Amino acid sequence: MKSNYLLLGAAFFIIVFSSWIWKNTYTNHRFQVLGKIDTKVPDSSRYTRIVLAEGLDEPMEMAVLPNLNVLFVERKGALKLYDSKTKAVKTIANINVFSGIEDGLLGLALDPKFAENHWVYLYFAVGGEESKSRLARYQLVGDKLINKSEQVLLEIPTQRKYCCHSAGYLAFDSKGVLYLSTGDNTNAEETEGYTPVDERPGRGLADDQATSASTNDLRGKILRIIPKDGGGYSIPEGNLFPKDGSKGLPEIYTMGSRNPYRFSIDQKNGYVYWGDVGPDTKVESEDGEYMSFDEINQAKKPGFFGWPYFLGNNQALPLYNYATKQPGEKKNHAKPLNNSPNNTGEKELPPAQAAMIWYGKMPSKHFPLVGSGGATAAAGPVYYSDLFPNAPYKLSEYYNGKLFIYDWIRGWIMAVTFDESGNYKQMEPFLKHLKFSAPVDMQFSKDGAIYMLEYGTNWFSKNTDAKLVKIEYQEGNRKPIAEIAVDKPYGAAPLSVSLSGNKSVDFDKDDKLDFSWKIAGKTINGLEIKYTFKKPGIYSVELNVKDNKGAVGTAISKIHVGNTPPLVDIKSNSNRSFYWDGELLDYQVVVKDVEDKVIDQNKVKVSFGYLPHGKDVAVILAGNQYPGAYKYLKGSGMLANLDCKACHSMDKASVGPTYKSISMRYAGKKDIVKTLAKKVIEGGSGNWGERAMSAHPAVSPDDAAEMVNYILSLSKKSGKLPLKNSISLKDHLGKGKEGSYLLNASYRDKGANGIEPLDGRAYISLRNPYVQAEDFDKGNVRIATITTAFMAYATGIADQSYIKFNKIDLTGIKQLKYNVQAIGGGGNIELRLDSMNGPLVSKFIVPAVADGKTDWKELTAAINATKGSHDLYFVFSASGDQKHDLFNLDWIYFSNR
After folding, report:
1. Model confidence pTM above 0.90
2. Fewer CB in a 10 Å sphere around the end CB: N or C, the chain?
């Protein structure tokens, strides 16, 4: 008996102890490795995002200099420097590059001894007729690249006939070893839904077995060398093949990659992490989706990572026979053989290594946080707190030892946690409160801050949303977040501008803030200032917000002087707030522009339409669409939220055709909606060149059709109207009370004084004259609901309570109707203009309850003739001793009869 009690006691102890470990390891978004500190996920308000530069032209890779200046490269050949003191970007060199397909100036790294030797390493496709890419180094002295100092370390023969995959990222490890990633440089556009393993005669450029899977080729690899002080390089210990080249090229560290676009090296254990951008295939995976996996790989040691034979967790792809159009054998991952006639290396390859993380277009059952749709996986740095001693912006201990990965197309960043053996444990979102526009590089600086390059929306383009960004984390006192409000960002010279820092935020509520502005070399203090720009040009305005503990937040805005936005006005004698059955809306559009002395009337766009849902007005205006496009709003919204914007834009060339060109090409064709909807879901190539369109298998046929219908609508006539007209309001008949009419007028000027063309717009939105009381813009009453009757109304009406509606036109309003419910002593409804004590234009007495009846009644009130738009205050007052619960109010009808 005694032994049984001992066993029960021991079991109880184990259960309690195990529960304690579980609770303290996994609750509250925590993770604990034994021997490490368990800390909470840091508050998002402790991160400050600072845009250092924007409007970049295809930024690729960056390096943060010891003085915190930032050096970065752009694909077309520019080497640029962001000066952290002047906060300006300047081009310090232009490298002669071939920038066709995906080639160009791709990689940049600083020598580990940069402070002593000033070496900067660049990787680029050499300009000229010879197809080759070069790894070279130059000396950077101050802000000048010394071209004569060039030392060529390595050149890689390439092909420039077919797209794609160049990779080209550079990084050093903690021992001074330089790593370079190279893409497979193989024809990726004619794969017929399989992998590029075309063994037919003359098709060697479409065979990845000649590059990625060849031990005698430097493409589709991560290379590893040691640059020598006097030039050239040596081979470090521990690469994949012997230094004598007897089994393969000795520079190779990992092989079997498609496009190892971004990688990083763990500075403590030397593990290499990279994102490998996946294909679009129609090969079914073991999970029932297509094997179109992007991968995050981990190399604890050199190896072969599968491409083009394996993807994901070593799932085998068939060796497609392009002659017979039949899928063939699948390789053995334990002993893969490269028998291609295009292979110049060893036939027997090292065993294939599985990916650490993999995901396709469908939601992943293994890694659900990554989402779905198109993808471009990338690996960022591993964070170690002790590598940033006394750094002011170092991250929380919570992230110690975690790897950061990110996705260009999906825009997320994840923090990956490892177990004690260095294997994948879990991932979690990082900085999910921030939005990134195609993150293309992520690095830490010596002050602990995160620097990010954002490529921007459109491929192969200079994008206004392409940025260099710094993200600072602070414990203790937080830096203020500066924000600039400007009343006129555009205008003719001289331009007087009002600037305000009122929207700036400090999450430490007790801090006292000082505001200072830097404009054209001048410093001006104050929360709100006015400044006059006397000459045309693009000016930078900098706001610095400093708290009483010395922390400073900075914001920068651009003021464009030299072109005034057009002034578009719609004149009308009709009411500008409401529509009534059978009434007419008269209008005349008048456009004036300071720089365009004569307005081309044919370029003034006027459109009109009925929108069944009131909220559609805001969506139409935000998208600058014509009112008739309301029926395509669902499709428009889905396109905006899908990955389509990574390859397509409305009218600006990108990697794929513009939406407008698609619309024009397919307009009016039979059964085209069904055909294109299938294309959206299944992907493919051939109609606009051989570049493959990503599949979207998670999109339903109905949703795909909605998107296609929206695209096809773009070539339809928008129903441009004359500048002066009268329109009968009858489209709303029989369609309920929720709809609105929208008259929209716009004009784009010609640009002036180096400032781009600007848009001007005006609109009239008419809604139903039944206004629900509970939809007030401001007030001090309550809202009650009767669910069974689908009814809501204003209640809790007391003496001197009110409801306010913003900017309602009273032109032509002759009386008001109220739907009221007497519940007590009754009271008064006064309508006053623009304030609770403004001019009184209507007064009505709601009678007290009679005979205990509390039915809803429609009552009519007179109103003084009033013109123009006003803020309407419906002020309630008691007519007797009862001061509370005077009556309830359901709706107000504005009558023109």
Report:
1. no
2. N
Q: Are 551 and 480 in contact (CB under 8 A)?
A: yes
Selection from 533, 277, 304 nearest residue 406 by Cα: 277
Contact between 55 and 90 under an 8 Å Cβ cutoff? The reply is no
Quote the pLDDT of residue 642.
62
CA distance 800 to 618: 33
Residues 843-889 have pLDDT tens digits of: 999 988 876 777 899 999 999 999 999 999 999 999 888 899 999 99
Query: Cβ contacts of residue 383 below 8 Å, gap of 6+?
Result: 395, 399, 400, 401, 402, 403, 404, 444
Instruction: Count how many residues are written for the chain.
Output: 897
Q: Exposed (0-12), middle (13-18) or buried (19+): which is 115, by Cβ within 10 Å?
A: exposed
Question: Does pLDDT of 20 surpass 50?
Answer: no
Burial 757-776, CB ≥16 within 10 A → b, else e = ebebbbbbbbbbbebbbbeb
Distance CA 671, CA 13 (A): 70
* Tokens, residue 305: 């990572």
3-class DSSP assignment, residue 11: helix
Q: How far is CA 90 from CA 61, 70, 172, 456, 518, in A?
A: 16, 11, 26, 19, 19
End-to-end CA distance of the chain: 96
For helices 659-666 and 701-713, the axis angle rounded to 10 degrees is 90
- Cα–chain center distance at 127: 33
For the chain, the C-alpha Rg in angstroms (whole number) is 33
pLDDT digits (tens, 9 = 90+) for 346-356: 999 999 999 99
**Position 460: which residue type?**
F
Convert 703-720 into a string of H (helix), E (strand) and C (coil): HHHHHHHHHHHCCCCCCC
∠15-19-24 over CA atoms, to 5°?
A: 155
Please name which of 539, 604, 541, 532 lies closest in space to residue 568, comparing C-alpha atoms: 604
Cα–Cα distance measured from residue 299 to residue 272, given in angstroms and rounded to the nearest whole number:
5
Tally of CA atoms within 13 A in the half-sphere of 120 that contains its CB: 29
Q: What share of the chain is helix, strand, coil (3-state, %, to 5)?
A: 15, 40, 50
Helix (H, G, I), strand (E, B) or coil at 169: strand
Distance between CA 727 and CA 737 in Å, rounded? 20
Q: Amino acid letter at 149? A: S
512 CB neighbour count, 10 Å cutoff:
9
Q: Spell out the long-range contacts of 129-137 with Cβ–Cβ below 8 A and sequence spacing 24 or more.
A: 131/98, 131/157, 131/158, 131/159, 131/160, 132/156, 132/157, 132/158, 133/103, 133/158, 133/166, 133/168, 133/182, 135/107, 135/170, 135/180, 137/111, 137/227
User: Distance between CA atoms of 427 and 356, rounded to whole angstroms?
Assistant: 12
DSSP state of 117: H
Dihedral over Cα of 389, 393, 394, 396: its sign: positive
> Does 144 have pLDDT greater than 50?
yes
Concatenating the DSSP letter of every residue in 428-448 gives EESSTTS--SSEEEEEE-TTS
Q: Please report where in the chains the tokens 């230094």 appear, as a residue.
A: 243
Q: What is the three-class DSSP state of 140?
A: strand
Q: How many CB atoms lie within 10 A of CB 679?
A: 17
What is the distance between the alpha carbons of residues 290 and 104, in angstroms, rounded to a whole number?
Answer: 32
From residue 634, give the alpha-carbon distance in Å to each of 637, 638, 709. 5, 6, 10
Backbone angles phi, psi at 482, to 5 degrees: -80, 140
Q: Three-state DSSP class for 475?
A: coil
pLDDT of amino acid 676: 81
Q: Is 186 left (phi over 0), alpha (psi -120 to 50) or beta?
A: beta
